[in-house]
Amino acid sequence: MKILGIDPGTRRTGWGVIEPWGPRAKVVAAGVISAPAKGSLEARLKLIHDGLARVIAEHRPSCVAVEDIFFAKHASAALKLGHARGVALLAAANAGLRVEAYPPALVKRTVAGRGRADKDQVARLVGAILGLRELPPVDASDALAIAITHLQASRARAVTGRR
Question: Is 134 a catalytic residue?
Answer without folding.
Answer: no
